[in-house]
Each structure stands twice: as structure tokens, then as C-alpha cells.
Amino acid sequence: MIIAVTCSTGAFSRDPDVVDAAGIVAAARRVDADGFELLSYPAFADDPKDSTSIFSRSGLPWTSVHAGKAIGPLLSSGTADDRRRALALLDADLRLATALGVEIAVLHLWGMPDSDRRFPSNLAAVSDCLDHAERFGVTLGIETIPCLEATPLARLSELQRRDPRCRWTLDTEFLALHDELDLALADADLFAGTKIIHVKDYDGEFVDRQGRRRYLHPGQGRLDLAAVAEAAASSSSSIRLCLESSSVRPDGSIDLGQVNADLDTLRGFVPLTSTAGVSASRRPGP
């Protein structure tokens, strides 16, 4: 199976201070990836027509849209008003995906601060989310994200039983946080429904000594990312590897050299037999 090595725009953007649409496009033009997952930020909603136009006219190879992270927490509340707000936000991101010609949208179905403590509310909303995506002709890839009461794979099992239409986005770091990465790699049924694998490394520490979020680059942690790439290549479905490790410095500047180095490292994990047919020239022109 041919593997595309893509890059999340979250690798070189950050809410709320590095979210300018034109700046994201300018940075992406300097990144050597097979395609890009556009991470949706609230700032895009300030002028959705303008931001959508900037992204759609860029000529960049968009491969997926990561829906806004406010959707899951709104669904967790269980109120009808919050569900309507969540679905309205989801619709906005699905419109963006449609405008970009993207067929996959990543969804955090649950999220902080409650995580999965109120998961029954999220479970009750999943079919509505899938219905909305179907109306836009977009496939939702529900992502494995941290849990406080269960584990990511247990929550995916509940979702699959609730609605067999569910498809997945796996996150290497979040699965490793719960000691579930190896289980996920060995689960052929899970992989059959997987669209994207978000790649970050992990060394056992999620935050630093000051409590700030850490993002390890491929090769900096203890994860067997070669096994991740091998599992994707061996799958019967087409799975993209998507770099998520952040290269935004504390001052808001972006280390694009690190982004490209991370992508080179990630490509090095991909089995040679899976890369036939992947263009050697991925970087868009100016």
C-alpha cells in the first residue's frame, strides 16, 4: 500500500497567536509534504469567506481538515443548545472541507476539560455528527484522544457499537499515553476503519516540569514509529501518516527546518515498497 506522508498545519501554527490564514499558507509552501491537514481555528470564523478563499486558492494539496476542538466539549455538556452549537461548528468545518475538495474531516468527539467523564453525551451525538458529514459528502475520522475514565480504544469500541459508520484517526502519542499503541497496531479490524494516523513521539511525559504541553518530534521519544509505518503499509485500507509535532517556538516563531526534518524522519520509517508512485517533488511552487 502506498503511504502518503502529510503534515498538519498545527505543526507550524498555534491558537490563538499564530493563526493567520495567509501566514499558514506561506509557511506550508516551504514544507515538503505529500499533502496538508488544515487545523481549523476559531479565528477562521471571523471572516470564513476570506479564510476559505485563501486556503482554496493556495493551490496546496489539502488532504484533510481537522475540525475545531471546541466541538467535543460542547457535545459533552449534553444540553440541546450546546449540541446545536457544536453541530453548527462542525458544519462550518465541513463546508471548509468541501471547498478544499477534502473527503476526510478529523473530529475530537470528546475533549477537555471533561475528557470522557461525560461520554454518554458524546456517544448520543455521534450519529448526528455522522449524518451531518454525510450530507456534505465528507467522512469523519474520530480521533483517539486522552481519557480520564476509560481508554481511547475502549471508547472507539463503544462508538462502533453505537454506529457502524464510524471511522477513525489514530494518534500515536495519545494511544501511547494509555499504553494502547501496540494494541491498536495489532488490531486489523481497527485499521480497516482507520483513515489517518497522527504522528507525534512520546517518552512517558505529557507535560514539562512547569506543566506546559510537550510535543516530541519523531525519533525523540521511545515509540516504534517504524512499526506504525509498517502497520499502515500492511493495511488493506489507505492510511495517511500525518505529522503533528509542533515546531512553533515559545515566542511564536516557526522552525520550518524542524518541520521538514520531521517529515524526512517520518519518510525514513516508511517501508520502501510502499513509496512507489509517491511523487519525489511535493513542495508547491511560490
From TrEMBL:
Single GO MF descriptor: isomerase activity
Taxonomy, superkingdom: Bacteria
Record domain Xylose isomerase-like TIM barrel: where: 25-247
Keyword Isomerase: yes
Keywords for the protein's UniProt record, in alphabetical order: Isomerase
Keyword Transmembrane (UniProt): no
Protein name: Sugar phosphate isomerase/epimerase
Organism the protein comes from: Microlunatus parietis
